[in-house]
Write a structure and sequence with these properties.
Elements: H1 10-31, H2 46-64
Length: 71
């Protein structure tokens, strides 16, 4: 009758947050692609790059620290 308690790593939740925020930033950057704001460096499309980076980092954290995965 031994119960095993599984602890969910905090880094999994950090990965989820990065994934959600990255997706939101990426979508907003893609939405403003055709009508960029009137700023100096708008042609670099920073929200697309940063959103994509956050999505990739979020996926890495979620896969690496997925609960139930043996480390």
């Amino acid at each position: 009758m031994s119960e095993q308690h599984h602890i969910i790593p905090i880094w999994f939740f950090v990965g989820l947050l990065l994934l959600v925020y990255g997706f939101l930033i990426l979508v907003s950057g893609l939405a403003e692609w055709s009508h960029p704001p009137a700023t100096v460096l708008a042609n670099l499309h920073a929200p697309v790059w940063w959103g994509g980076l956050l999505v990739v980092l979020g996926l890495v954290y979620c896969v690496k620290y997925y609960p139930g995965r043996e480390s």
